[in-house]
Amino acid sequence: MKFAISSLRETFTNTMKLSFIHYFIVASALLHLFPRVYMMIIPHIARFAAFVFVLAPIAYAAGCSESPESATPPAPMPPASQAQVRVATFNVHRLFDTVCDSKNCGGKNYEPQPSQEEYDAQIADIARSIRTIDADIVLLQEIEKESSVVDLQNALSIYPAYAFGECGYRASLDVAILTRGTIDAVETYRSGYSYTDPTGKPRPLSRELIRADIDLNGIKISAFTTHLVSRVSDPTGARRRAEAAYTQQVIAEFAAQNPQRFIVFGGDLNDTPTDTTVIDLEKDGILIRDAKNLPPATVYTWGNKVAFDHLFHNAPLSPHWAKTARICNDNPATGLGTSDHCALKSTYTFPLDYLGLSR
User: In whole angstroms, what is the distance from residue 231 CA to residue 142 CA?
Assistant: First the structure.
């Protein structure tokens, strides 16, 4: 805006200079060649002079004054010594295929059985949502089968690699990772989890905790995702807290073994920033929650009520390097696309030499 105002002033000044030059040239020619005509147009010349010397400066001053906003410079692009990585988490909302694996589908049963047309429409809708998110790495929740991840990959055609975390029981809703980079290794951690609830019943990790080691244009990233047990299944939150504690332990051990690795973690944690579940993920200074300095309402992801979806990065990266925002429909209460969740996306800007890289 400041540049535009400066340009306008320069144009106005140049125009005034030309007007004075043209005036004297035309006036001199008329005076010598057509004296009578010159006398007839004197009133018009007087009106023009009044505009130039009185009205035009007023219009110039009124039209070109700067507002406070105009002084704000545009956001700078990352310099050559920095890189940006965009990571998002998105609960797609109950993506089931057309096969009834539980043998009890439809109606009030847990597993629906969509028609092929309905399934294709949901795949297309989720693919549109992921394009809208526009991230380099997308952490996904609530996908029944690996074949559906492949269907999404084919519908998108911009994510050449994926990882899938399968729980292994019928009609499970699982987690996945899509990336624009390549995946060097995948690790799952569900089998290492052990928890006994207050009734003495052993409980497995409700969904897989998966890690994908990603190479994104030479940047090595380890991305973790999971989906903690729901509030319906665990109203006291004891299981969620235990699952979160195990997740934090896994990531802390990995970070200790890989001190130069860029680590991100995200997913649907079914708890809010003020719950112990989320707070404890930052204990020991291993992880930082990306949106911790933002007003809670700006990152509500489940309807327009609470923040259940979260992103974290490893603490050696300064918190100001993460810029986080939710991505929703025009009405955030309706989620993104046909999902009941909005997506959460972080853009990380960091020095290449943090990872020993150069451009």
Answer: 15
Backbone angles phi, psi at 203, to 5 degrees: -125, 125
When mean pLDDT is compared over 11-15, 39-43, 181-185, 299-303, the highest value belongs to: 181-185
Helix orientation angle between 146-156 and 116-133, rounded to the nearest 10 degrees: 60
Give the pairing type, strands 219-227 and 287-289: unpaired
CA distance 280 to 243: 11
3-state secondary structure of 176: strand
CA atoms within 13 A on the CB side of 290: 29
DSSP class per residue in 224-276? EEEEPPPTTT-TTSHHHHHHHHHHHHHHHHHHHH-TT-EEEEEEE-SS-TTSH
What 3-state DSSP class applies to 345? strand
CA–CA gap between residue 98 and residue 184 (Å, rounded) = 32
- pLDDT, tens only, 3-35: 333 443 444 444 444 444 454 444 455 445 455
Residues paired with residue 213 on neighbouring β-strands, in sequence order? 185, 222
**pLDDT above 90 coverage of the chain, percent:** 64
